[in-house]
Amino acid sequence: TKGKVILGNINHDKGVLVAMKSNETQTNKLYEEALQKLEDEPEVAGILLRNLEDERRHRLWLVSTLDAIAL
After folding, report:
1. Residue 22: per-residue pLDDT
2. pTM of the entire structure?
3. CA 63, CA 22: separation in Å to the nearest integer?
4. Crossing angle (nearest 10°) for helices 12-37 and 42-70
5. CB of 25 within 8 A of CB of 59?
6. What rounded mean pLDDT belongs to the chain?
7. Collapsing DSSP states into helix, strand and coil, what is residue 5?
8. b/e 30-65 (16+ beta carbons within 10 angstroms → b)
9. What is the per-residue pLDDT across 3-24, written as a single tens digit (0 to 9) for each?
10. How far apart (Å, rounded) are the C-alpha atoms in residues 14 and 66?
């Protein structure tokens, strides 16, 4: 959420990225849970799946960027 990002800003770029990663992890989990509930609604599930794939790409970028910063 916005609060995590604001608090993360205290630690500058890395703190913001860590907060954003936390948000993306939560968002991914919620999309996955919603997809399980909507297995019988393929049209809606298809939209959620595309959104989940996008959120996974966001999280992957954050993880790889944080790994690069740690080097």
Report:
1. 96
2. 0.77
3. 10
4. 160
5. yes
6. 87
7. helix
8. ebeeebeebeeeeeebeebeeebeebeeebeebeee
9. 555 555 555 788 889 999 999 9
10. 7
